[in-house]
Model the fold of this input.
Amino acid sequence: MTRLQRLLSPVQLDRLAARRAGLGAEGAGAAERDWRELGGLLRAELRDGAAPSSRSVQALARRAWAYIEDFTGGDQAIHDALDHLRRQEPPDDLAGWDAELLDFLDDALSVLRTAEARGRVSASDLSSALTVPVPALYLCQRWGRSL
Done:
């Protein structure tokens, strides 16, 4: 049993499997490329010393949040399980993302949540629709195999 399987119900695992199957091999490859690209852009911001609150980092955080929300389907338990796994046993390399990069994204997402709470950003801004496959599906597939 994987770590993810221990944290999610059979119904939630079935939902993830259905999303993964819906992507297909081509979609999974595109998702990985998109997630790696996003990670590269975010890592460049981190390397250049950008603040998590900077406009450029916030744009990337919105994009990441949209991927995450699309992947979880709004299921808070799935989101919490992935967050727990990342915090308790961060990956060394997950499609180019490591603990340092995930922490930077967390900081940027905290800024977004704070802005939303203060009414400066709407919930729809945080989960704006994207036309690319969801990289988080690829990530879950990878985590599911290794957990």
User: Anything to note?
Assistant: Residues 3-146 form one domain. The mean pLDDT is 78. The radius of gyration is 15 Å. Residues 61 and 105 are 6 Å apart (CA to CA).
